[in-house]
Amino acid sequence: MKGPGGVTILHTEASDGWGGQEIRIYREMLGIQGRGYRVLLASPPGAIIHQRAAAAGIPVISVAMDRLHFPSAVSHLRRVILENGVDLVNTHSSADSWIGSLAGRLAGAAVLRTRHISSPVKGGMLNRFLYGRLCREVMTTGEFIRSQLIRDLRLDPARVRSVPTGVDLAGFSSPDGSCFRLAHGIPLDAPVLGIAAVLRSWKGHKVLLEAMKPILQAFPEARLCIVGDGPMRKVIEARIGELGLQDRVLMTGYREDVVQVIAAFDIAVMASYASEGIPQFALQAMALSKPVVATRVGGIPEVVLHGETGLLAEPKDPASLAEAVLALLADPALRKKLGDNGRRRAATRHSFEGMLDQVEECYHRLLRTSGSTTDAGEPRPE
Fold it and tell me: The domain 8-166+351-370 is classified under which CATH number: 3.40.50.300, 2.40.10.340, 3.40.50.2000, 3.40.50.11540?
């Protein structure tokens, strides 16, 4: 399915971070642009996604998205929408969703709200107005989030679509993790656990560190690689020191070569206890045939199927997490089975092109119902 030339999509994102949500938006914009759509991004100028999109050739519009500038931001974005002939506004975070939705509706554009995380949305009148009236449709990154929104905000199920995150398997063909191990002095035969995620409290890094004690008692040569950066870095570093894990835990910081890093893992581990949608790290690990140990949180069980593509543990429970990891470390055949299953599931259920197909279907349906396109999905003549 190819996009209709002449249709303009404006994405808005208020976040200044760089995690799974921002990475999905960035890749989705590039993918949709490659299918013939004109794509724009409105975001604060200091946001990482603003800078990366501009470097990738996506036109960017600087918009202050704090409360102080709210009225002027709505007015500014409305002018941008009108001047650029924007057909559809796709919002992503809380602040930009209010700004983008109001500006879009005032300018006569269709509005789509994408919800990426599974933290509860309070079912008050304002949020019901935003999701149920300002936005014509809602897209979620997983079925758990979709069901949550329908239940908590009493939304019409026909207006809420789940489009799980996809992974581009082309970059996951045959990476070699030995170079990463050798560069960091990790023996090639040492069991390596790894997590790649923004260092936020709810990602559960401290829980994972607590789980390392029983893991190291059974496998003294095991290593844990923590990949990523974020506001919890100093707290995590301090906890590593308190637990005496300095020689068994490696913090790499943010890495662009995350595929090569994950290739060095024997087991991918996620210890999140809140907010997860469909985590890109789990999909990346599965695409590399790595078994995943993760928690029963948010949309994680939609991709990490217990006993099929990985093992699930209870959130905030170091003993449960350690038990699952130890079960895999003790059984190489099980690790291979789960890893192979994960690769197949990533290819069949979570391909990047499949995700773009579903995004396009949402765009076409929304543009048709809003009157911005003809029934064939082509731009409506001026």
Answer: 3.40.50.2000
At 8, list the tokens. 């303009």
Which burial class, exposed, middle or buried, applies to 303 when counting CB atoms under 10 A from its CB (0-12, 13-18, 19+)? Answer: buried
Q: What is the DSSP string of 131-193?
A: IIII-SEEEESSHHHHHHHHHHH---GGGEEE----B-GGGGSS---HHHHHHTT--TTS-EE
DSSP string across 215-237: HHHH-TT-EEEEE---TTHHHHH
For the chain (382 residues), the mean pLDDT of every run of 10, in chain order, is 74 95 97 97 97 98 96 98 98 97 98 96 90 96 96 96 93 86 96 97 98 98 97 98 98 94 98 94 96 97 98 98 98 98 96 97 92 43 32
Do 169-349 and 8-166+351-370 have the same topology in CATH?
A: yes
Structural class in CATH, domain 169-349: alpha beta
345: which residues sit within 8 A by CB, 6+ positions away? 286, 303, 305, 308, 309
Q: What's the confidence (pLDDT) of residue 377?
A: 40
Kindly calculate the radius of gyration of the chain based on its CA atoms and give it in whole angstroms.
22
Task: Say how far apart CA 352 and CA 170 lie, in whole Å.
Answer: 10
| Strands annotated E in 54-179 | 60-62, 88-91, 110-115, 137-140, 160-162
Sequence-separated (6 or more) residues with CB below 8 Å from residue 256: none
Please state the domain extents for the chain: 8-166+351-370, 169-349
**Per-residue model confidence (pLDDT) at position 348:** 95
**CB burial of residue 158 (10 Å; 0-12, 13-18, 19+):** exposed
Distance CA 122, CA 126 (A): 9
Under a CB-based contact definition with an 8 Å cutoff, are residues 1 and 25 in contact? no
> What letter does residue 184 receive in the DSSP assignment?
T
- By residue count, the chain amounts to 382
Helix/strand/coil for 376: coil
Bridge-partner residues for 295, per DSSP?
313
DSSP string, 37-65: -EEEEEE-TTSHHHHHHHHTT--EEE---
